[in-house]
């Protein structure tokens, strides 16, 4: 096993020119789509191509971006986590309760919120691994259970924390919040972990062929649990970011956001079948979702219309992913 590990690691680290060309093509394609959407909405609304619009978009996406980083790893191992929106709400609720009811210092309260997300993610991963259950089912159950926990902690009422943790959302550099800078840093770290570490190669290997990983002497179970645990931790961080921006913890926060997270990851090219993905591309997907929502709002699209268009974008992204997968299979055949 030890003799095979360096070889497999170096093979995974050195990507063939075709793979690099494919990555560059994906980057270029996503960039063209993003710029095309900006140009389209800029032509439809005279207020879209303004500094205020882009600062607003940047300050609204940190929570979505950090959750999408974790979801990228989950999809790469051929899993899914539908509970991230509820975990966001519960983590924010615990933080607010720690500040308002338990009178704990803000740093301690924030750590409790992050720990809540970590525990939720760990439970989801451990249950799905221990009983070999589909993560879809386990996370669906966690979605309901954790949402109920958020209602209990907040007594089903919005908890106003004021400016206790508003520093995360406060303007920092040119109006950009610290939360956005932190989200960009986490995207960069996530990409480095995925592409430059042994853990990242194991994540890709599990999504590509889990049985082959077992035969190579690598136990995929702890890796799966770690991926879900980190995803829960990032959802907890997203809860802090959203509470900082709204200065409140709402038990209804994050309802449906898991669909936006998955949409951003899939639009970024991460395969729903597992084994392929990029955190940088996921960030492009987050930007595309954010620009789409901001543009539709500025041109006066109704809420039902926005949901229909966003859903259509998700379906198109899945179709493109399926066609790409079939083309790759034909090429290998």
From TrEMBL:
Q: Which domain of life is it from?
A: Bacteria
Q: Does the keyword Transmembrane apply?
A: yes
Q: What is its main location?
A: membrane
The cellular location(s) given in this protein's UniProt record come to:
Cell membrane
Q: What range does the record give for the signal peptide?
A: none
Q: Which Pfam families does this one have?
A: BPD_transp_2
Task: Give the bilayer topology.
Answer: Multi-pass membrane protein
State the UniProt keywords alphabetically: Cell membrane, Membrane, Transmembrane, Transmembrane helix
What cellular-component terms does GO give this entry? plasma membrane
Q: Which regions span the lipid bilayer? A: 27-49, 61-80, 86-104, 111-133, 172-194, 223-241, 253-272, 279-301, 307-323
Recall the GO molecular function terms of this protein's record: transmembrane transporter activity
Region (Disordered): which ranges?
1-20
What is the protein's given name? ABC transporter permease
**Native source species:** Acidovorax cavernicola
Write the lineage as a comma-separated list: Bacteria, Pseudomonadati, Pseudomonadota, Betaproteobacteria, Burkholderiales
